[in-house]
Write a structure and sequence with these properties.
Length: 414
């Protein structure tokens, strides 16, 4: 049974008393290590700094604890400055013997100019694994993200016309009225017009240890294609099918939820995320959250494949793009994410087929929650996972998704 927050003051007192006068760091194999990997050399730099400050306000393990928090942070030297190099830093965050949070710099990567790369990710995680050998690792990744589409691709790609140029400008103007969101892992190179992204397969292959959980504080990461790619990397996954506002995931309770109990309390963490955004007002009341059990994704793929195989002709119906529950709001340039279950229902899945799918979803997605809307997008028929819907006129993107592991398992795109 997990600790509850009702006894937080008591636990805090115990932790502080336990570490009074103890200066020696824990030696041996750690029980749990929480890793934060922040790629903030972009316009999210100040937001990621705020998130780390929020993390420091939580109940933190002491230096002698067998649980540790290690944070990798790469931010700009000053706001809007994307050309001046600023060395990434690896830090340990813990509670000092006086009860105050301590940030101890473990390493400065003076020779690392690009943190948004598979080689840098592998290097940092190897350093963490060497310095903090552990029975259990979990990680939260924070940066931009666009689900799983090729870097630089948006809705007007493959539609090079005067009309598309006009629609791009109109959507850009419309987007300006919404709060900013996070756009998976990028870095600006001299300016926002030159961006380096980490391709998801490279990210997955760069992780040298198995993770108990992976939290993606990146927009549109709640696609089943992303989850299926990561199913052998981690046991559980926390993602958002929609974009994420720049305030990001919840960091004020991250240490508590992940480290206070005998195992990480991801369910409580997801509920806190939902409560935070659902308790906001206006356009800020916009958020979705999904908890995925990765071991159940093969059964979900099997149930989905059966429906696709039986109702393939209906997938070519153009009206699906307008009728299926989507996860992109009206002016989003990333208009490729549709609800997995609602798609199956609308292409004619039988009651028996939907019953099997629902059972698979219940096992694979033990929790999901959505605010009533995300900006001007009503969230009415949501299962917690999005899926790419093939669209005529997009041969390049269709081919891209055809080669993904999810598609090889389900045959959605022939």
């Amino acid at each position: 049974m997990h600790w509850t927050r009702t006894i937080l003051p008591v636990l805090a007192a115990i932790l502080l008393v336990a570490c009074q006068g103890i200066e020696k760091p824990y030696e041996g194999t750690y029980d749990q290590v929480l890793i934060y990997y922040g790629m903030g050399y972009n316009n999210l730099s100040s937001n990621l700094k705020t998130n780390l400050d929020q993390l420091r306000t939580d109940i933190l393990p002491g230096l002698s604890s067998d649980k540790a928090i290690v944070a990798f942070s790469h931010n700009v030297a000053s706001s809007g400055n994307y050309s001046t190099p600023n060395a990434p830093v690896l830090m340990r965050i813990f509670r000092g013997s006086d009860g105050q949070p301590v940030t101890d710099t473990l390493k400065v990567y003076d020779d690392m100019t690009l943190s948004a790369s598979s080689s840098s990710i592998r290097r940092v995680l190897d350093d963490i694994r060497t310095a903090f050998p552990a029975e259990h690792y979990g990680m939260i990744v924070s940066s931009h993200g666009t689900g799983w589409i090729p870097a630089g691709y948006d809705y007007d790609t493959e539609r090079a016309s005067r009309a598309s140029v006009a629609s791009r400008a109109a959507r850009a103007q419309e987007r300006a009225r919404w709060p900013e969101t996070k756009a998976f892992g990028n870095q600006y190179r001299g300016g926002s017009g030159s961006v380096t992204w980490v391709e998801l397969p490279e990210w997955a292959q760069a992780i040298p240890m198995h993770l108990d959980y992976l939290i993606l504080d990146t927009c549109l990461s709640g696609c089943v294609e992303v989850a299926y790619e990561l199913k052998d990397v981690c046991d559980r996954l926390v993602v958002s099918p929609t974009e994420i506002l720049t305030s990001g995931m919840v960091y004020t309770t991250l240490s508590w939820d992940m480290l206070a109990g005998s195992s990480p309390d991801l369910l409580t963490y997801c509920r806190e995320y939902y409560d935070f955004y659902n308790g906001s007002s206006g356009s800020l009341r916009s958020g979705t959250i999904t908890l995925v059990e990765c071991s159940q994704l093969d059964a979900l793929a099997s149930a989905f494949a059966a429906i696709v195989g039986a109702h393939r002709d209906a997938l070519s119906e153009p009206s699906l793009l307008n009728s299926v529950q989507r996860y992109h709001y009206s002016s989003s340039p990333f208009r490729f994410y549709f609800d997995l279950r609602d798609l199956c229902a609308q292409i004619g899945a039988t009651d028996a087929e939907l019953s099997r799918l629902d059972a698979a979803l219940a096992a694979a997605v033990p929790y999901h929650a959505e605010t009533p809307a995300f900006f001007d997008l009503l969230l009415e028929h949501c299962c917690g996972l999005s899926v790419y819907l093939p669209e005529a006129g997009r041969p390049l993107l269709n081919q891209f998704y055809r080669d993904l592991a999810w598609n090889r398992a389900t045959g959605l795109i022939e």
